[in-house]
Amino acid sequence: MEKHLLAIPNRCTGCNRCVYACSAVKEGMFMPSKARIKVNNFPLEGYSVPSVCFQCPKPDCLEACPQEAIFKNERSVIVVDARKCDGCGDCVAACPYGMIEQYSSGKAYKCDMCGGNPACVTECHFGALVFREADKIARKLRGAQMKQRITEGLPEKKRHQLALNIMKAAVRIPRTAGYMG
Amino acid sequence: MIDYEDDYISDYKGRDIKTALQEAQQMVDTILTPPDQTPLEIREEIARKTVRNFRDHINKGFLEYRKSVTEATNFAMTEWTGHGSILVDALDREFLDALGGYGLYSYGICHPKIVASVKAQLDRSPQYSQELLDPLRAQLARVIALLTPGKIQYGFFANSGTEAIEGAMKLAKLHTGRKGFIAMLKAFHGKTLGSLSLMGKKIFREPLLPLLEGVRHVPFGDADTVEQALAAAKAVGDDIAAVVAEPVQGEAGAVVPPDEYWPRLREICNHYGVLLIADEVQTGMGRTGEIFGVDHWHVAPDIICLGKALGGGVVPMSAFFSTPKIWECMEPNPFMHTTTTGGNPLACAAALAAITVLLEEDLAGQAKTKGEHVLNQLKHLQNRYPGVLADVRGLGLLIGMEFPTDGIGYKVAAGLFSRGVLTAGTLTNAKTIRIEPALNVPLEILDEVLNRLEDVFKTIELPRRVERMDLYAGQLLHVDLTNREIQSKSITKKWLQDYIGGWGLAARYFYEIVDPNTDPMSPENAIVIMTGPLCGTLAPTASRLCLVSKSPHTGTIFEANVGGAFGPELKFAGYDGIIITGKADRPVYLRIEDDKISIEDGAPIWGKGIFKTEKWLVEKIGYGVKSLSIGPAGENLISFACIGSEAYRQMGRAGAGALFGSKNLKAIACKGTGGVQVADMGVFWGKVTQHKEANLMTDDNLWAKTDGTPMLVDLTNEIGIHPTRNFTAGVNPKRHGLNSEAIKAAKIGDRACAACPLGCGNFTSLNGVQLEGPEYETLCLGGSNCEINDLEQVMRFNRLCDDLGLDTISTGATIGLAMELSESGVHDLGLKFGSAEDYLAVVNEIARLSSERGRDLALGAAKLSAKYGAAEQVAHSKGLELPAYDPRGSYGMGLAYATSERGACHLRAFTILAEDPFKLEAMARDVIDGQNNNAIKWSMCFCDFWGSVNTEIMADLLTAGFGRQVSAEDLNKAGERIWNLVRLYNLKAGFTAADDTLPEKLTKQALQDGPHDGRVLSEESLEQMKALYYHLRGWDEKGRPKAEKLQELGLQDI
């Protein structure tokens, strides 16, 4: 069974280690603006929602690409072939989660699961990011996060709006071990 | 591109013999026609066909990679003719050749003497029979034997550089009978399977693993690592045949090793009985300013590999040569290694002629002088365009330019190309571009190349970060609010080593710009905000942000710091810090978005609480903006107003918020899209992980993750130093409402500052009140000390303070005092211990100055007690209210409070866990150690809660980040230097030893209850500790640093 990268917002502290790690792997420097994972922080409400690429079964980005530069690899991860990408940005508009973006050169970039060993998960000390085969609870959580789709606006705005919705729907009670919300 | 698909007349199986012949014939005809007599339309046709043929028959990828070649104009640049250092394409467009075919064209294109020799040999005999002895090959071998250093005498000729390497590897294995090789990281020796094994780049190797076994890689330029690898290989019986290296790494970007490198390699190889192979394919034949690269260091390798320029830039040619002794292994069976075409007569004719040119024209000498000229010119360019050209290096005419990013490198390469200059971007990225023209390139052409290079630099939009620095952003924002001037200036580099960042660096700047007699609330006072070098990286708990200024509450210099994510954001925007001077004529906020910085109208948010201000800024500027802002308390210049960030984090103590207010500065909002770089990400990340696992995430610190500061409630009660009822008692019998268990019961989430894996923040929710906190100090000063033991009320108090922008310690302590003043009958302020209603109401009254008692309490505890003549009731030092550790049960804390630069503060030295808290000498020592250590810790911008972090770890992280050694001793010294620097400032501001004091409440009134019931910290004890402290610090009896101490710390001239 394939593994999913799953975000559990109720556990997220908003520390952004995942974001720093991602940019360090992908850009060679600590540069959150170019990270493939994002954390939406709501400090006043004390809540944070990681935005991850779901590697959708039916990826909107892939379908939108006129150059066929986006494909599903053997691990079912959706990846961009930068050589084919001509920078049109159709994928960015198409992704309802705001999880594919462009460099200033126009080339698109997105999460590629670090080839099966995501650096973000390794750096998360609160279990807010997990990478594993989806069990029932995980599938439910993932399904709930994927169900919402924002079709308008820039990626940052889409992520923010989705995160806001997730926060509003979250059930937050004093913790018990293993509680995922 | 025109579609040529229709041109194919396909017969079955895609074969078309007729067209094959026809097209071949066409091209032969074209070749036979002198280039200048080929009509333009035929040449255009060829240009088009070449693109098509590349696409269909060579590799589409090339067209993408060489986009600038194919797409700059309608017609792709198609090679046609060339001479010397000028290349002409099929459409008569000229190019200056600064690439030299990656070192192939050392003699220029079509050197007449070499071409003549080859043409003549072509007419005589182009290849050899394979059976008779061929004279040219033998003579060439002798000539090369005469040229090469040391005992090198025998050789083998092949066609390409990689073949020479393959041969050398076989020879080394045959001779030594071992299988292993040591190669260098980033090395390039060719791409056939054997050579590829030596390649130092993942991108080419990884997809083809496994390659030859027994090859290991070490960093280039560090001979020790070679020795370690050899020793290790020997120890495990996995022996090495040879060490292989390029004298100067070419493909890696013209990397020149240190001078001792090659001599050391020779020595080490001799010691271990291992062969030394010099890959001179690119560096040989004069390229680096000597005939061979190794000549620079007078090293004779065991095997030398030649290629590229060996064939004179006319015929492919390569060779590997070695000594008679090593060659013996090839003699029993001379067919061990053969080739049909290697060393053919054409190639030998070319090589022999090329060697005469090399020596007659003194190409090595030319390379040396021209190389120096180019390097000098490039260094000038680097000075003029520091943001474009990050580094320049090389030897002879093998020169590398390094750019800050691939993007800039690509723009330079493309810009040069469109200006008719060919250069070599490396295959994998454009971050480094090589210049390696013909060695006999005329100076005018070199200068023209440099001219056009500068021309390209001018067009490149200067990146914001004008200087490439590791860890630091390199720039400081200077904001003059009076004149509304904003400038970004380079950080003062000479201070970085001595003051590091954060507190130290901010204090150093502050010392420079603000006269010690300045009124804190005047426009002349400056606010210096500073991040640390590790801020914005994965280094845990090291992203705090420091502020240094002169305090309106204490009159001293002071430091306050805050966690959260503003510091990293500022760094990502490109600034290490901000220096704010002057005063705006009306409310403003400062808006920073990378290099767009503006002073904006603050009227819409003036009067708003911090929570609403932050929301407003997010709506105005955009999601993800981080801010520092003040609430009504700061606007109303309450001298213990704080600056808030991310709702519940504060630069709390000593009135930073009032300073913002005094400058009419409501907030600073920042959004950054840049990054923080380190010398080597792998090394840095490795170190971060190592120290995180081995030191941070251990029992010493994990209390922060599991409990956070509320765990101190029970601990301080146990010790008996938990301020209760305005510093009357040392234990609070009703603490169970406020301790860690109570917090946990209300906790609904963990919160963390940027990059912190501890996440000490407890987000709590109780009866509709939600906030991050309360932290220990608030639980005590706003709880026990006011006898408010109901967590919900303390949470309300905490939220109010956070929103209004009041420091909870000073506010809680002042309210506690007011309760005692009221209850003792000194002056009725309508506040009673344990009475929550007025306790909450008065917070608003203080921040808004909305009532008589509000205005009274807004004075702060020291002035309030003075106003009503009750000095015996107040606990403060230098005007700053005491935090939540009673010094009567921990004498070290008393000394720490008395000697802190900003008054009573627990973040300078922290001795509550001392074995014997009343041993005066030990306490004096502990306090000094703590202060020095914290001075460096706050300068590195670490959080208090990595309690076990030490200067060894800090130095290790900096070393990894900078890529150069930083020592723990230097950091220790810096800590002491910083402490002395702020002391000097306070002395100049008029503070004396008499101000290093504690109030009567602590020195005369006995602490009640708990283990220290009845104890005071007498003036005598304090004075005794102070005397010891001054002495140990190298200060005189009046608390002034002695000249020797200043000398020792490099502060004598300050």
Descriptors for this entry?
heterodimer, A: 181 residues, alpha+beta, Alpha-Beta Plaits, two-stranded antiparallel ribbon, 6 helices, 8 strands, 29% helix, 18% strand, globular, B: 1054 residues, Aspartate Aminotransferase, domain 2, Aspartate Aminotransferase, domain 1, seven-stranded mixed sheet, six-stranded mixed sheet, 40 helices, 32 strands
Q: Return Rg of chain B in Å.
A: 37 Å
* Biggest β-sheet description of chain A: 2 strands, antiparallel
Q: How many structural domains can be distinguished in the coordinates of chain B?
A: 6
Count of DSSP strands of chain A: 8
Could you tell me the radius of gyration of chain A in angstroms?
16 Å
How many helices of chain B? The count is 40
- In N-to-C order, the SSE pattern of chain A is EHEEHEEHEEHEHH
Low-confidence stretches of chain B: 1-8, 70-74
CATH architecture of chain A: 2-Layer Sandwich
Tally of contiguous helical segments of chain A? 6
Spatial strand sequence of the major β-sheet of chain B = 4-10-9-8-7-5-6
Distance between the termini of chain A: 24 Å
Biggest sheet: strand arrangement of chain A: 1-8
Nearest-integer average pLDDT of chain B: 92
Q: What does the overall shape of chain B look like? A: elongated
Helix content of chain A: 25-40%
The quaternary organization reads as heterodimer
Q: What's the number of domains of chain A? A: 1
